[in-house]
Specification:
The protein is of the alpha+beta class. It has five domains: about 120 residues, no CATH class; about 90 residues, Nuclear Transport Factor 2, Chain: A (Roll), CATH 3.10.450; about 190 residues, Elastase, domain 1, CATH 3.10.170.10; about 160 residues, Neutral Protease, domain 2 (Orthogonal Bundle); about 325 residues, TolB, C-terminal domain (Neuraminidase, 6 Propeller), CATH 2.120.10.30. Helices cover about 20% and strands about 35% of the residues. The protein has 17 helices and 52 strands. Strands 11, 16, 17, 18, 20, 21 and 22 form a seven-stranded mixed sheet that branches. A hairpin with a 2-residue loop joins β34 and β35. α8 crosses α9. The chain is globular. The two termini are about 55 Å apart. The relative contact order is 0.08.
């Protein structure tokens, strides 16, 4: 190695490895596992064994140094996943397999130089999981995995929209699934899953759906789910000079032109299509490696965004014109901007880095313009893994293709997919967004000649507004100064894919600071090198920092340059172990809950929750503990390979669901101990489940998503009473207390569907209609006490808020504790009630997602008149708060994501007003 310094770092403690250990505690798409393989080896110069290909040489190097890398058989367990070659350098990306099954995010990189016919290894990095032990024989087939994945996505979408399923049976299901085979999710010893992509349309809002779902291949339970749609917003020579030089030069080949939405006339490379006898926006001049590959722009006007995510409608056609000069129609749809900008972004990557198109191998670049939201304006854009889709814009925002930084952002998602492929969830997803923002903004900033020290240089999408000031119009600002300590927002994957937009400017801000300090040319090269030669799919902020530092060092940034890079990351709080500094104002009952989408329960001084082992590799089990935090936790569920979730308790009995390959069972066990009893079994069950003395109630689903409510007696569980579950009669959201059950009912009466909130006295069978909903109203979750019933409803469609309603048990005294309209209206999604307080989980309506707009707990307690209308925040924790369960008086138990993990926490009284 001569005088070169060997730098080795590992992901987690591994005594046998020559490494400095760090422990990742942040929420990522695939929690890490014990590994002895170093995360980064740099500063070496070691000759690789002779081999026919770069991949073979890389694997031979790893095999020859098993004492360092701890990879026993690289030739067997590492498949070639692409080689980036440039200027005598080769970076080999290798995909880990476990007994022949690919490992999610398991990639290892080997960097080499070619000298005099020899290969010299200069460094390695990535994630190779040495702790995997799982068997690779599946217990369920693809068909069942697809069915479970579609069900899981459908439940998630329905829960957001208070829907009991389609009114007219099973016709026209909007979701379909495609299996990609077995994948090992690298949690602990590994979880064998079937990877399913679910596509379609949301049942209520019509939003595009493209979900990546991983179903446990033995039990058939979803263990991971995130969106595969890389959206621009939540529900961006010298690299710069290349863009400037190309901005005003005519493209070679067939010369056309058009007017951008800002009024400037630009040259366009177009093609005369003989079959249509028209000129189309098809650029054959740029991609020289394959004459069949082009840059094309397609007209999607009349198509919904949901038609275009992961799909290609048969009637989609390239934007056309009778003459090479494209007119007003092409301008107003955003087609001229999209086509021109795609060429600029292609030229940037080609000129700055020698990259041939998004994949580096000359792939066709397709831009689709004019997408709408069910015919309404669509102010967004996305990359779906195949193409860019740009929304139509609205009265204030131009079509999204009108901003060069937006186009650069979306096309960079394609570059990321073809290189580090950062998983679009959690911290890796936030880095995916950050790097897309960085390059999108770098391209536009240089093209518009905006100085880096201009306060407006960091604005993303600021040119889209028709009348607003650019700063007011911008979607994000890379100069917003956000840090991990002051701004990081912990959320579950159901919210912004785990915070991919919420937290992106923390990392992007550091990169933008680096660009200001190092200058555009060097900074862009550093970030590109980090992306293509160091980062791997599951890396988080800390690994991203290490990758950028290593890339800067390799590019000769020097002492002052490296100091500037470190300073930028430190200023944004991205330092080792930064997650451990995040604090909360509540008491932790169960840390690091490693389950996916399981509710909590509480009652009689006890709480219940489902969790896995620390790494998340084991099927979930149900645990119980005292709400005051005293005593030992109690394991309630058997270790039988099934997933035990959604528990409830009344302080005497615990009930829960057990999901396995043959369906779902409702199980029960006394808190004091005793045998586990099976109360019910069926095809599927919703998350609503409750127990009160001898009564157990739960939501279930027949095939096709026909929702029903059931209740039974613990003394005689065979006597099950069911409600709904039919084609024209659905029932949802049951809650039980004091011998009564409240639920939501929807059924067809005289050819018209009616929705009602109903109460059953179980002892007498007497049923009371608490209220009939007005037409168009959707009804949501319920709660019940000795005196009142509570429920959620949405009566004003598309206004972004819902109401919390209360009524006496005879249906009188109906009032809205949290109205759907007015200055204090909230988007309420959950409700739980005790004798002294009712607590709701709600979001504050906002134009963009922020901490204030995340799900928070709000509690109503009696005021001086005793009518329960005094409202206060339960906790001021930053981050998402979900799955609330009333635990007596004003105490609440919930799952809190502030620290980046899902912790079960509690508070005995509200915090009050939060800043």
């Amino acid at each position: 190695m001569g005088a070169a310094a060997l730098v080795v770092s590992a992901a987690v403690t591994a005594p046998a490895a020559p490494a400095t250990a760090t422990t990742a505690v942040s929420r990522t798409a695939g929690p890490g596992t014990g590994t002895a393989t170093p995360a980064l080896v740099d500063g070496i110069r070691e000759e690789a064994p002779e081999a026919r290909t770069a991949a073979d040489a890389a694997r031979a190097h790893l095999a020859a140094r098993e004492d360092r890398y701890r990879i026993a058989d690289p030739a067997r367990d590492l498949r070639p996943a692409g080689t980036l070659a440039s200027g005598g350098r080769e970076t080999v990306r290798l995909q880990q397999t476990h007994h022949g099954v690919p490992v999610l995010g398991g990639q290892y990189l080997v960097r080499m130089e070619r000298r005099d016919g020899r290969r010299i290894v200069t460094g390695t990095s990535g994630r190779y999981f040495t702790g995997l032990r799982t068997a690779t024989t599946a217990g369920i087939d693809d068909a069942l995995a697809v069915e479970r994945a579609v069900d899981a996505v459908g439940r998630d979408l329905a829960a957001r929209d208070f829907t009991a399923g389609p009114d007219d049976g099973d016709a026209g299901t909007p979701l379909t699934g495609t299996s990609h085979g077995l994948v090992v999710v690298p949690r602990g010893t590994g979880v064998l899953t079937r990877h399913i992509t679910v596509r379609g349309t949301g049942p209520a809002g019509g939003e595009p759906v493209l979900r990546e779902v991983y179903i446990d291949a033995r039990a058939g339970y979803p263990v991971l789910q995130y969106s595969g749609i890389h959206t621009f917003t939540a529900p961006t020579t010298a690299p710069g000079s290349a863009a400037r030089a190309l901005a005003d030069e005519p493209a070679p080949g067939t010369a056309g032109s058009g007017v951008r939405l800002d009024g400037t006339t630009v040259p366009l490379a177009v093609t005369h299509d003989e079959s249509r006898d028209a000129y189309v926006l098809r650029d054959r001049t740029r991609i020289q490696s394959d004459p069949a590959h082009v840059l094309a722009t397609w007209d999607a006007r009349g198509h919904w965004a949901s038609d275009l995510s992961g799909a290609w409608p048969d009637d989609l056609q390239e934007v056309a014109s009778p003459a090479p000069r494209f007119g007003t129609e092409a301008t107003e749809s955003g087609a001229v901007d999209a086509h021109w900008a795609a060429g600029q972004v292609y030229d940037y990557y080609r000129t700055a880095f020698g990259r041939d198109s998004l994949d580096g191998h000359g792939m066709t670049v397709n831009s689709v313009v004019g997408a709408t939201d069910y015919g309404q304006p669509y102010v967004n854009a996305f990359w779906d893994g195949q193409k860019m889709v740009y929304g139509s814009g609205d009265a204030e925002y131009r079509p999204l293709s009108a901003a060069l930084d937006v186009v650069g952002h979306e096309m960079t998602h394609g570059v990321i997919t073809a290189s580090a492929d950062l998983v679009y969830a959690g911290q890796s997803g936030a880095m995916n967004e950050a790097i897309a923002d960085y390059f999108g903004n770098a391209i536009e900033t240089d093209a518009r000649r905006v100085p880096m020290d201009d306060p407006a240089s960091g604005l993303i999408g600021e040119t889209l507004c028709r009348t607003e000031d650019p700063r007011a119009c911008a979607f994000r600002d890379l100069n917003d100064g956000r840090t991990t300590a002051g701004s990081f927002l912990g959320v579950g994957f159901g919210t912004d894919n785990g915070g991919v937009h919420l937290n992106s400017t923390i990392f992007a801000g550091a990169l933008w600071d680096i660009r200001e300090e190092l200058g555009p040319r060097l900074a862009d090269a550093v970030v590109y090198k980090a992306l293509t030669e160091y980062l791997t799919p599951l890396d988080g902020f800390t690994q991203g920092r290490d990758a950028v530092l290593a890339a800067a060092k390799r590019l000769g940034a020097g002492g002052r340059g490296l100091a500037a890079v470190r300073k930028a990351f430190t200023a944004h709080g991205i330092v080792p172990h930064w997650e451990q500094a995040l604090g909360i104002d509540s008491d932790v009952l169960l840390p690091r809950v490693t389950t996916y989408d399981s509710r909590l329960g509480a009652g009689g001084g006890w709480w219940v929750a489902a969790t896995s082992d620390e790494s998340g590799s084991e099927p979930y089990s149900v645990w119980a503990g005292r709400t005051d935090g005293k005593g030992q936790l109690r394991l309630m569920s058997p270790d039988d390979g099934r997933y035990h979730v959604n528990p409830a308790t009344d302080g005497t009995t615990v009930v829960w669901q057990a999901h396995g390959p043959t369906g779902v069972e409702i199980l029960a066990r006394p808190l004091a101990g005793g045998p586990v009893r099976t109360l019910w079994q069926g095809r599927g069950a919703g998350p609503a489940l409750g127990v009160d003395g001898d009564i157990v109630t739960f939501a279930y689903a027949n095939h096709g998503g026909r929702a029903g409510v059931a209740y039974l007696s613990l003394k005689d569980p065979s006597d099950v009473v069911t409600i709904g579950g039919g084609t024209y009669h659905r029932a949802t959201f049951p809650a039980v207390s004091h011998g009564r059950i409240v639920y939501q009912d929807r059924q067809r009466v005289s050819a018209v569907y009616e929705s009602t909130t109903r109460l059953i006295d179980v002892a007498t069978g007497e049923e009371t209609v608490l209220q009939k909903a007005a037409p168009g109203t959707t009804l949501g979750p319920t709660a019940l006490t000795a005196d009142h019933a509570y429920w959620l409803l949405d009566a004003v469609d598309q206004n972004g808020t819902t109401a919390l309603r209360r009524a006496a048990l005879d249906g009188s005294d109906v009032t809205d504790l949290s109205p759907e309209t007015g200055p204090d209206a909230l988007n309420v999604s959950e409700v739980t009630a005790g004798a002294d307080a009712v607590t709701m989980v709600a979001r504050t309506p906002a134009a963009e997602i922020s901490n204030a707009a995340l799900s928070k707990l709000w509690q109503f307690t009696p005021d001086r008149k005793g009518d329960g209308t005094r409202r206060a925040r339960v906790s001021c924790n930053r981050g998402e708060q979900i799955f609330a369960a009333a635990a007596g008086r004003t105490r609440v138990v919930w799952q809190d994501a502030t620290t980046g993990t899902g912790d079960v926490v509690t508070r005995a009284r509200p915090s009050g007003t939060c800043a």
